[in-house]
């Protein structure tokens, strides 16, 4: 007896047979013209979906789906969505290899709205023509048979091969998708989808998508348990560590248990340099601080005098000497951004980055810290190819003349975005300005 074929697989053998497309197109034509289909003309899951699409009044040759969410509304909705905290898992398992594998990775909400569309940039540009973009609604009752919409409709992982799509404009694409549930309540949260060419309808891709869903639901379960544990146990009485804020500020602000202290520029530079040395578990001599602070201008004796004043201001229990070093932990907004970037939380890092490190400082050591974190953030934003992050980064003073950032904004924005024209105009002004120089 032959083994049973998985009905949710589009291409069990991994590739279509020679007459596969012709038979599917003929069956589709019979259905939309009201002619009965021969038995086993298409998979049962596809036949049922076609019937639902027909009953919902979906036009097989109709226009693009609506874009329900744009710009700030999309960003706000996504940030509040239960799947937002697990996007690093999805990116690590699917998105990082999507460009090499010629695939698009999409994550929807339970209503079929695309919340994240990432992966191969060339494919995403092509897919934007059919409104396969963030904010568009790809529910089955809106656009007919498609993997994410049908997976949500039947609450099961499914593949849809090209000609199995109900709408003809979508038939050049294949897709594999699976629903995601809240592991505690069982509530449907959305779907994870992979879209691309025929190879996306092969069995191993559906296995990969289902494995990603399992990892996502496991991460959600872990996060839920962690939240319950943190709520149930009384927090230890801890003295809050002092906090140093230097991002986007001309002068640093040090927040102590006794309250905030606004530092002078020289004290801002010295305390930041000591905090950066502390990250590596080091201290600094007066000679080193003089070189990192104002080479050729600040003598060792001047630095010692400034450090003496700083210690009187913030307390000798915070800054030690011989060598000069931090005696306790100081949290800096700069280090917080670096930690978020290391975890892959690019959006959150960008939210915590109001601007460059002490932008008015000319101290070489401060300039190194400023350039390093700026370069890390810029690289992470460019690598993300996420239009809302690119647009947000482009508004920073250091990015307003950055041609690469604005070109990436233009490349990543869907054709339907009202911000595309403004990005194109700004990029044109930058290039004209360069030619004029």
Descriptive overview:
The radius of gyration is 28 Å and the shape is elongated. The protein has helices at about 20-30, 45-55, 70-80, 85-95, 120-125, 140-145, 145-155, 205-230, 265-280, 285-295, 300-315, 335-340, 345-350, 365-385, 385-395, 405-410, 420-435, and strands at about 105-110, 115-120, 160, 175-180, 190-195, 245, 255, 260, 320, 325, 330. The N and C termini lie far apart (about 75 Å). With about 425 residues, it is of the alpha+beta class. The chain has 17 helices and eleven strands. The strands form three sheets. The protein has a five-stranded antiparallel beta sheet with strand order 2-1-5-4-3, sandwiched between helices. A four-stranded mixed beta sheet has the order 8-7-6-11. The protein has three domains: about 20-230, Beta-Lactamase, CATH 3.30.450.40; about 245-330, Arc Repressor Mutant, subunit A (Orthogonal Bundle); about 340-435. The longest helix has 30 residues, at about 205-230.
